[in-house]
Amino acid sequence: MHSPLEWTGLSQWSYLVAAFAAMLLTVWLADRLRRGKEGSRALIAALALTTAWSLLGSSFGPIAAITQVFELMRNLGWLAVVYSLFARDNRHTSVVQVRPVLAVLAMVELFQIVLLVLAVRFSGIVAATAMIFQLSVMFRLLLTTGALVLVHNLYVGAISGQRDAVRWTALALALMWGYDLNFYTIAYLGRTIPLEMVALRGLVQIGVILLVSVGAMRGGSALRFSPSRSVAFQSLSLLVIGGYLILMVAAAQSVAWLGGNVSQLAQLGFAFATTVVILALVPSARLRGWLNVMLAKHFFQHRYDYRAEWLRFTRTIGRGGPGASPLHARVVQALADITDSASGLMLIPGEGGDLVLAARWQWPTAEVPAEAMPAEAAQFFERRGFIADLDEVRGGTDHEGEAGLIPQWLVEEHGAWALVPLLHFDRLVGLVVLGRPLLARKLDWEDFDLLRVVGQQLASYIAEHNGQSALLEASRFDEFNRRIAFVMHDIKNLASQLALLARNAERHADNPAFRKDMLVTLTNSADKLNALLARLSRYGAGGVQRLEPVDAAQVIEAVAARYREAGGDCPVYVTQGQTCLVTASRETLEQVLAHLVQNAIDASQPGMAVLLQTRLDGFNGVIEVSDTGSGMSADFVRNRLFTPFVSTKAGGFGIGAFEARELVRAMNGRLEVESREGLGSRFAVRLPLVMATELEIQPDGRSGDTPNDKKVA
To answer: Tell me, what's the pLDDT at 389?
Structure first.
């Protein structure tokens, strides 16, 4: 064990050596600067102040008031060095980012003057002296914490090839303030200055001067400060935590003045209240969002860290595997992540030119109609590539005429925040509805630029996906057609053989009764096989039998009667059989309705009814098949229901719904679908009325050969 006298002697000699070393380095750097060589006036000033502080510490002791004043000046001088390193090479945009932090730290250090005056004024009061000492140490802790954060950002933020210019100075500052952090922490906990660490502090100061000397002799290149968002956010978080700690310590120290049980109760209550507040705020996504916005607004030229955004965008879009979300959902998430939106929707063009819902991302409550956006609005976004701020639309702002085209459900859905079109070679392939972020803000030019570029990239992914899907479907049809060609050949041969057998049996059979039964059986088989062959041939040609006037009411009555005679768990009823003369093929229409009714029965629980009805709608006749079964999601309707060779039934071939839609189209009609999961489905076969056909009216109510642009599911 060393006596206090021995520690005092070591302290005097270490401070004296540190003063001598700092003085030599100061004179050398000043001489270099006088001779026109590269040098830093801030560094020379900081070394001069360090010389004075070390000399006073050796003469009067580190705790003396005059020594404390020069320690304050020494710290301010080294903060100026940090400032000069950030500002080197006239990088004023970098200085703006750290100037507020430097100003706060300088203000904290200047409070030491007030505390020194108070210490002299209340030197006779023990409690006051102890409290002033604790406050002084606490402010020094805050200074050293903030200074270390700045030194960390100074080194990490420099480009890797230019770090040599700052490495040794940053290491010296980290050593000095790092030791001071431990020094004042022990002083605060022990409520006194540790003599051993005072002596060692002089030795540490010698090490600091040596490191600065190495850095000065090595020189360096110009610096450019470029901290990452994560480093800046962590630094700001450290400062916030440090400020919170200082606040808690100061409050606890103030409460201690109350004395007695009141002091204990007050401290207990304060601890409980602050614990509740910190537990409520730390996990808050809103608080984190606010910190990010404030950081980007005041510390960076640009809102976004484009490298980080691109990496996250790539990970989101490229995510695969069995558990991955569909592409459209990932597209919404990729855009929503950029603006911190909490949810989103994906609308894509339907076959009639309008926009329909394709995917939801964390937005199950949004009420989206079957026609989410009319064709006129889709054409507007396709022509202009305009990103719409829905808050501006609600406020009455109309930049390019978008206010009159955005559907009312989007205006009334206050969770909807922005509309981002996805354009691929000036063609609209989708429209993303972004939900409102947790921290509401106004979109600016940087948001619009980034969303527009990302939207174009996403549009290329969607176009590629659509192209691959089309190629896959074409290859499946090619394989299907090859197989059907063989089937048709075999069926044709079989039908010919059966027909020949029937003719031979009619001429040569000896038993009249046997001949009669055999004739009926073989004739029916031949008829069935020929009917199958004819239907398969029609599929390949894409047509139907001759179109003629058909009463749709009679057709649904016949279909319902067929199912009633066959029995079954789900009854089929005709709720409204309004006379409805449409232009169609009766056999084809019965085939389509039979398929739709069977699908409705398969989707319903036993005892639940399937309803058929006809009605007139302008120049169209509409046949509806409704059920209250399991229903379908919008994603299934859009992406799977009419996709060939995709079936949810065990052993299903997956072309039934596709076949029904194609047959309806062949009769110049449309097949529309509305469905909700858990509520049921409604299929509507829309065919032109006979009178409309005679007037050459299209199914959407327009004359001539204008293509139909209404929604076809």
So the answer is: 92
Strands of the 344-349 sheet, one edge to the other: 355-361, 344-349, 427-435, 416-424, 388-389
Domains of the chain, earliest start first? 4-226 (1.20.1070), 227-301 (no CATH), 316-541 (3.30.450.40), 548-694 (3.30.565.10)
Q: Summarize pLDDT for 125-167 with one digit per residue, the tens.
A: 888 888 888 888 888 888 888 888 888 777 766 655 556 667 7
Q: Tally the C-alpha atoms within 13 A of residue 287's C-alpha that lie toward its C-beta.
A: 10
681 φ/ψ sector (left φ>0, alpha ψ -120 to 50, else beta):
beta
Give the integer Cα–Cα distance in Å for 376 and 385: 14
Given the structure tokens 């900081």, which residue do they identify?
46
Mean pLDDT, all residues of the chain: 77
Question: How far does Cα 303 stand from its chain's mean position?
Answer: 16
Cα 319 versus chain centre, distance:
13
Q: Are 330 and 324 in contact (CB under 8 A)?
A: yes
Q: Which two tokens stand for residue 667?
A: 């009769």
> What's the rounded Cα separation, in Å, for the pair 194 and 341?
53
Other Cβ atoms within 10 Å of 471 Cβ, number: 10
**Dihedral of CA 436/441/445/449: which sign?**
negative
Secondary-structure percent of the chain, ordered helix, strand, coil, rounded to 5: 65, 10, 25
pLDDT of 287 over the 90 cut: no
Provide the angle, in degrees to the nearest 10, between the axes of the packed helices 445-508 and 306-318: 10
Count of other CB atoms within 10 angstroms of residue 71 = 21
What pLDDT, on a 0 to 100 scale, did the predictor assign at position 709?
39
Pick from 579, 588, 568, 559: nearest CA to 668: 588
Q: Report the pLDDT value the prediction gives residue 410, as an integer from 0 to 100.
A: 93
Residue corresponding to tokens 């606010």: 290
222 pLDDT higher than 50 = no
Using CA atoms, how far apart are residues 713 and 701, in angstroms rounded to an integer?
Answer: 18
Percentage of residues in the chain having pLDDT higher than 90: 21
DSSP 689: B
Residue 687, H or E segment:
strand 680-688
Which residues, at least 6 apart from 18, have a Cβ–Cβ distance to it below 8 Å?
50, 54, 202, 203, 205, 206, 209
- Angle of helix 586-602 relative to helix 552-566, nearest 10 degrees? 50
Helix 41-60 with 195-218: angle, nearest 10 deg:
150
Residue (of 220, 223, 215) closest to 92 by Cα position: 223
- How far the first Cα of the chain sits from its last, in Å, is 90
Structure tokens at 589: 């229409």
pTM, rounded to two decimals: 0.45
